[in-house]
Amino acid sequence: MFSTMVSPLDVRRAGIAAIVATALAYRGLKKQSLSRSGAAAAMAVGFLSCAGSYRWGCALIAFYYSSSKLTKLKAEVKAKYEEGVKAGEGQRDYIQVFSCSLVGIVIGVAHVVLYGLGNDHPIDFVSKPLSSKLLCAYMAHFAACNGDTWASEIGILAPSNSTTLITTGRKCPPGTNGGVSRRGTLAATAGGAFIGLVFLLTGGLEGGLFLKTQWPLIPLGAVCGLLGSTIDSIMGATLQASYQHKKTRRVCGHGLGNRDPQEYTLVCGTDVLTNEQVNVLSVTLASVAGAVLGPPVWTLCGW
Length: 303
Hints:
With 303 residues, the chain is mainly α. The protein is 60% helix and 5% strand.
């Protein structure tokens, strides 16, 4: 049961969370991976995550750091395929930050309300079923975010003739919403597994290392990373419009805006949802899947 009493450990955790959140925001600004609004949002998200549980904060940092690195990976090449990409830059604003973290924060707050700050324990669906499902949902959220980001940032660098629409199998330009490749699919799986591994290795930060019974977090993370990316791709191919410029052949996947429609060809989809809305929906579904799939994954793994 949640207690309103504040312990010295809670004060220390809040202090550490504030330092980590400030460092995240400052680094994002310095490295130009975050805009000013994105840095403010990252500070809030970082504080809430680390204050709730150290390993929640570690999962967030793992997603943020790896995604920032991959966003900048061969940005000059990506700029040849996709409009709105500048070599050496990849700034995320507050909307992008919250679209990749808000659902996870809600899950974390729910766990804190029910079980208190820092009450992070081994996942055990027999003795602590609800808490374990919430922890799996939190991990699955960032596994989906990470998997989708890795898939996007690595998949766009796949050979141009290897990208196909997930809905029809028709070849499409790299950077198309709903475009998938073998490289991107493997990246999505690896990105999810990476978050599962981080969640596993940092499980002892609240006291007591519990690796033996918790390794199913890795396959669960891999599944949720792939699932989140797949859901994102399906919605991207149908509920987002992707256009290709007739001359430059670069893809515009975020709506034409003030661009001249006569200069573009529709590749796929309908302009219904923004990229951020698709992100929120896909990670929400992946989070639910994490909670639902957690018990059978543990059973299949012998626990």
